[in-house]
Request: fold
Amino acid sequence: MNLSRRDFMAMMGIAGATGFLSPSAIASSWGSGKDPYEIPEYGNVTLLHITDTHAQLLPVWWREPGTNIGTREQKEWGVTPHMVGDKKLEYYGIKAGTPEGYALSCMDFDTLAHKYGKIGGYAHIATLVKRYREQVGKKAILLDGGDAWQGSATSLWTKAEDMVGAQNLLKEDYFVGHWEFTYGADRVEYLLKHKLKAKFLSQNVFTIPWDEPVFDPYDIREVSGRKVAIIGQSFPFTPIANPAYFVPKWSFGIHPGHMQKMVDECRQKHKADIVVVLSHNGADVDKKMASQVNGIDIILGGHTHEIMGPRPVKINNTLIINTSTNGKFLARFDLDVGKGKLNGWRFNYLPIISNMIPEDQEMADYITKVRAPYAKKLAEPLAVTESLLYRRDNFNGTFDQILCDALREEMDCEAAFSPGFRWGYCKLPGETITMEDVMGQTAITYPQVTVTEYTGAELKNVMEQVADNLFNPNPYYIQGGDMIRVGNIQYTMNPGETIDKRITDLRVGGKMVQANKRYKVAGWGAMQKVEGTPVWDIFAKWLRSKKTVSANPRDLPVLTKNMAGNPGIAFPKEYDL
Reply:
């Protein structure tokens, strides 16, 4: 099905009578008086980019972080993407309360969520992708930045086959990976060889011990008589951030030197007119890589779930974006590609607000079919939340708070740890938490719950190591993710300090931690192979017993006063600032 603007607006007219906002209501709420998804055609190449959908086939609630700190030591104080809330809106010139304001900011999230609706959904993405392909024809290239195969119950239970089917229906052209590798090398290779139609590219994955490339590093595509080089960059820290036993014969890394070699090869050997990197590095790593590698025109980034739009960041003549998560945005680059150079560009950062975009029927039917065998199990009601539940924040998100509470109580422990994952969608106050929602926070291939006795010194060391991963001044030591989530642990944090000095006044249950005393801590997502009950079973059992849950109080750190005024903190009172 091809979809012109006329078709799209006609569908929206029908949708206005079936729960969607009408075209006039959409234009009015946007404040522009016109269709916000109408993009004038420009140039001779169009790049369409999605990333980090985390297997969310259906629309979800997604709140932007209220805390996303960049420090002066990192040279990231007030630098995109380390701005949140009103500061982010001011930087981009976006009016609060509009659909764009809702999409870009955490402010007034509950109110605006009820007003504008859920974000993402592959059927809604498909509608917009088809519309733009109809507009620009063969000039369009659709690129997926990875983390598409993990994050939902159905992706876990089908071993990612549900998502591959959706990718194929979207007719994606290129793909890179991260969480995909946690299905194991054999499963990845099988799906890439026998199921996925998109080309999987990675210049930074090699065999052990031979250092031979596992995947094609790049592809040269001729569009409108110009040669477009697409270089793939999968997540460089896969065997560190996730269990190495999933990919025991593969090595990963950033490999900026090899990236430079690939760029030069594309330009010199293949006479590429422009070079595009499809990256899963994370925003800060992409920025440093751009400063070191010459000849990249555009980096389409992912991994850290950042909003790096509506304006790209420019470093060393490289334009860098990061296209959020959960299908919240579709990024569109329209390029005027000349002989051996990029003459001009136009960029649009398009929120996928499901009430404003009708479903593509083909994709909607596929999603219904693939979910049908699991529908009853997914729909099981567990408890009602009194709090807004979300994960994404530098420190304890509210969903992680109740997960830590569940682990601590069910495992009879003094404290709990939960990984600082950035995936996992939201629930609004008053909504029922279902089994699907539990899986949306926990669906990984290494879910076993463990109980570990840490000394006080070991407890602090674990937390210092994670803090260094988040706040190290060298971006190449930042793996992405947020601070480890804690239950019944209190501390003071100075993000601007160095390792072993960031955390002070560490307490368990309000009592100062003693270096040699042992503390019983529940956790999940271990890096080594362990036996244990899957975390979703523990969490679901606890929710059933509670009936109603609240994320108050939260185990948030006290931040040191040098963080006062940081544009990466929307609600300073939460941290005693």
Summary: The two ends are 54 Å apart (CA to CA). The longest strand covers residues 341-351. The chain has three domains: 1-37, 39-61+117-369, 379-575.
